[in-house]
Amino acid sequence: MTASARRIRFKAALLRPASPARGGSWCFLVLPRAASARLPSRGLATVAGTLNGVSFRATLEPDGKKGHWLKVSRKLRKAAGADPGGVVLVDIALAAEEPEPRVPLDLRKALKTAPKAHAVWSDITRVARRDWIHWIVSAKRPETRARRVGNACAMLAAGKRRVCCFDRSGYYSRSLSSPAVAKDIANG
User: Fold this and answer.
1) What does the pLDDT look like over 75-94, one tens digit per residue?
2) Binning pLDDT at 50, 70 and 90, where does residue 5 land?
3) Which long-range contacts (C-beta less than 8 Å, at least 24 apart) are formed by 99-102?
4) CATH of 3-97, one of 2.40.160.10, 3.30.70.3090, 3.30.70.260, 2.40.30.100
5) Are strands 87-94 and 45-51 parallel, antiparallel or unpaired?
């Protein structure tokens, strides 16, 4: 397979989330079904590419519908000359190397107090660490997240290298989805 055959090109609407997190200046796009279908997983996928010709590297999130969505930072949006509600041209390919995931503070603290879990954590792949983190942060309630941090440390300490029974796509458990679209964008 040639490098160009692995490239995925598409156009998508740039959307503004209805409830943006802190900062509130990011946007997102949902990949067309055909583009998502060309990726090897319905879960997280790290890509490198361009948005309106501006280079970026990011991890696509599962949308819970066997597809993906991409968070577009304010910096990338401005550099690409894109506005919410407009259409952007995206050209992506799977990244050659998986980046080291950012470990959330609660998990980082828990691993520091669990040497056996930390040893296994240090020995597993970046993708495995990303899956553990994704499982933890996908919890909807704080108490569920706290329980998952504790369970992750216990399972890692017991030698478990992969979180099992976690639907990475969110399709079967409906635990993952793309953000809701702001009403002013959704209504045109």
Assistant:
1) 999 999 999 999 999 999 99
2) very low
3) 99/46, 99/57, 99/59, 99/126, 100/126, 100/129, 101/126, 101/129, 101/130, 101/133, 102/133
4) 2.40.30.100
5) antiparallel
Structure tokens at 102: 């950012």
pTM for the model stands at 0.73
Phi, psi of 154 (to 5 degrees): -65, -45
| 42-46, 64-68, 92-96: the lowest-pLDDT one | 42-46
Query: Is there a contact between 176 and 71 (Cβ–Cβ < 8 Å)?
Result: no
| Per-domain boundaries in the chain | 3-97
29 DSSP assignment: E
Which residues does 148 contact at the CB level (< 8 Å), separation at least 6?
135, 136, 139
DSSP SS3 for 30: strand
